[in-house]
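User: I'm putting together a teaching handout on how multi-component assemblies are represented. Below are the sequence lines for each component of a complex, exactly as they appear in our records. Could you produce the 3D structure of the whole assembly as structure tokens, so the students can see both representations side by side? Please keep the chain order the same as the input.
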Amino acid sequence: MNKYQILPFKFTRFNTDTVFITNEVGEFLFISNEDFEKFVSYKLHDNNKTYLDLKSKHILTDSSLTSVINMLSVKYRTKKSFLQNFTSLHMVVSTLRCNSKCIYCQVSHKDLCDKGYDMDKNTASKVVDMIFKSPSPDIKIEFQGGEPLLNFDIIKFIIERSIKINKKINKNLEFVICTNLILITDSILNYLKKYNNVYISTSLDGPDNLHSNNRPLQSGENSYSIFIQNLTKTRQILGKHKVDALMTTTGLNITYFAEVIDEYIRLGFNNIFLRSLNPYGFAQKQREIVGYPIEFFIEEYKKALLYIIELNKKGIYFIESFACLLLTKILTPFPTYFVDLQSPAGIGISGVIYDYNGNVYPSDESRMLAAMGDNKFLLGNVMKNSYNEIFNGDYLKSLIKSSCLESLPGCSCCAYNMFCGADPIRHYSEHGDIIQNPIKSNVCKKNKGIISFLLDLIRKDNEEINNIFWSWITRRPLTEIKRCS
Amino acid sequence: MNIKSMDKENVIFTVARTLFSNEAILDTSSKFNHTFYINIEPTQEDYKICIQLKDNTTEDLNIIAKEFHNELIDQQLRIDTEKKYSKIRELIVKQAFSPVENLEEEVKKLNNE
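Assistant: Of course. Below is the structure of the complete assembly, with chains in the same order as your input.
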């Protein structure tokens, strides 16, 4: 009779001396090779510190198995609570036309004067009706393009119709306009100001030379100077907290992360999401110019993260958003609701996109594939299909079934799978198969590389870095965290 | 692990079939086959494994064989522990989403297995 019961666990050799071991809900420990060997052969003594640590992390138990299963099931339910409410993020493409010609454009945009690529009122009306059929109590409608402001009338129509419908059902309703800010005017801003639930998500790829080279305008004007002017105006009218920015890493700015971060801080942003390039749209065609090996991105990312940590040590509160999402998954019992780090994937069940013509896709990436001529992930059309056909259809269910890391080859036994996520559309785009091949997958390489780096920082248990991580997770100033620790 | 032969491009070794399952051998091979050509020949008592360098690569095949073997041990351990504890995992997941009617009874069944 063994004196303890081993509970389900996963492990990986973290380095030559240490094993990283985690349970079903992502509670983890670093233990020595020697203790690991004793643990799996039931030779670990109950006065050993590792024994007690493994017990407290529910990786072994020497008491009632029923109560441990109960406790782990509650934690598991909490970790997977993103499944509770169904689709909350609804992306709407108001137009495919664009005034930019970004070198990495991921949506195969149309030119300013192209015709037939704007959403019309009839389609928009059906889109709004479908959005409000979602059972989720939280509805975020995100306008995308092209440049969505080129069809601002439809944005207004959707906002007004949504607010009208929502008066009866009272969901938590938010709108986000993803815009390059070039076309934003006082009149648009004053209209948006009437609503307290409209936010702006813009793009900033670095200081003038990097931003303008990554994101040139079709008109030939300097995109950076207009961006700066309109960012100031937008913040003045809507409020600083209503505007956030995203950056995209290309071959032009990948070696300048410090300069990009400095620019974000100079402009008053308190976070940056160091995003690697997606292999969609023009990015795939122009990979040689704008692309880079994922291994290079990981190395530059690590340097940038250490740079940001140093800035925080100096008193500058600044978050790297991807690290923050992963740290939340690693260090807290809660999910992040970030669709790219979910298992099952967030496709359709957390986020969905309605194209200008009413076509419905389970993610922005699948819409990009469709723009390149591959309609594999089309779920239906708001003009032809019912909510039930689109969201409760066999096709979406089969995609979701293929996106549970817990049952995917290579992922099911990965010690990092509770921190990671599945992205079948990305896998299809990279390898022609919705099932991930971890050996070939850039997503796997990136996530594993960054998770390992963060775990190593956590393992070193540096108080200052720990406090910085907690200040990011809890969105509180470092001084406040230090007082609590 | 018993190294049978090694030259600049190939290493051939055997591992005991009594210690390792087909699944462990295949899982491990899949982690190496993007960098090397892997050939597996099961015999009565052993698996004969040949690892061959792909074009234009230089690796110490002695180390690669040892890494393969270490990974094989870990992979077998994962398979063995999964067999032993997967029912506990299933109960955790079941209980999380649709509470098991009589959890105590289900646990007793596990303990009796």
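A couple of points students might notice: The first helix of chain B runs from residue 22 to 32. Residues 28 and 68 of chain B are 7 Å apart (CA to CA).
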